[in-house]
Sequence to fold (466 residues):
Amino acid sequence: MQEVSFRVAPGERVLLLGASGSGKSTLLHGLAGVLGGDDEGEQTGELAIGGEPAARVRGRAGMVLQDPDSQAILARVGDDVAFGCENLGVPRDHIWPRVREALDAVGLDVPLDRSTSALSGGQKQRLALAGVLAMRPGVILLDEPTANLDPAGVVEVRDAVRRALEETGATLVVVEHRLDVWLPLVDRVLVLGAPGPDAGGASGIVADGTPDAVLRVRGAELAAGGVWVPGIPPAFPAPPAHPPGETLLTAESVVVSRVRGTAVAGPLHLAVRAGEALGIVGPNGSGKSTLGLTLAGLLRPESGRVTASPDLTDGAKGDPITWSSRALLTRIGTVFQDPEHQLLTTTVRAELQVGPRALGLPPAQIATRVDELLERLRLAALAEANPYTLSGGEKRRLTVAAMLATRPQVLVLDEPTFGQDAATWAELVALIARLRDEGAAVVAITHDETVLEALAARRFGLGAKT
Fold:
């Protein structure tokens, strides 16, 4: 990101848009004063909060990061929400009422002593927002705060932010790709120029104005550049080319759990079929990700059994949970909800080479596969970058590419389109649809109904955990 200049007045409510990788998250980190020193990157110009360098006034701005795991600091929910208040020196008798009010505001109805590690991804996002709201900062910075939330949670979080703004008069800067939910709340839209050599020289702020002026007048132009614009849908792939094929995985009376003895969902009965997309849907905390990991052979069922067909087994012995990592590589590939949980190397190219090398493929074949995936998922310009320096959307595309590098027969994808702009969303969905039509089985765990519609997915619903 370069040549960005703007001012935000006290109390303004700003929606920050731009293509994946355009620098939205980096800009928020700068405003929060947490970009790091000179050894962590380069910076020119000035980022100020209230006329002072942002790095000197940390605490005036409260930020919810793109990755909620990186904001869960303490072991218990109540302590975690109280942490920011304690650092600001809020009197103790004021802290705990604030903690309870913040948790109520974001709809996180769990005991104060609940382990933060036991929360689902969506619940952790609510926890992070509660911690920010409890601090009552002058500036609220939100980086895709509703990306992994169920529809009810999206509304709860948006309304919690609205109440906080009305009560405190705080300034808001929110980054989202899907913007419909935030448009009633914001009074200004800023659009960053697209990144990389394909940006046509665009840099800095390419649009700035009221939501109506930016999205109505320049909507078509922005949509062509990858910005999600209400009323301009993304491109859908063609319908499935063939009816579903044989059942590759079967779950029989399966009860799933992340911690032995603590069931999350079940008993469940379902089939995963070749040439079909299966969408696992349900509210946050209902066990969707846990079911996905169980189907993928990465978690042992609490009870019941996940079995593989002879074609999928292909010489591997036992059920998927007993297979080695190498046996899983070509049979069942998994993309975790949090991309950073599966990054292993120091460059994007090396990350894509891990699986093929574990299979013992020849170097020339590895290079061909890797180069193809780099181009297909718009990562070629980042081939030598450290994966941890990528944007959230780029990390998601990288983990999908790394899974595809071993060409598994079953794809288990947890929030596969998280952090994508309209263009990369369409490309990623088209790629998944192509693999489906080539005979792969796709399991998509998502709150993005548009993904399921685009993939003509069969839905399997889980209820709220009681």
About this structure: The chain has two domains: 13-224, 247-461.
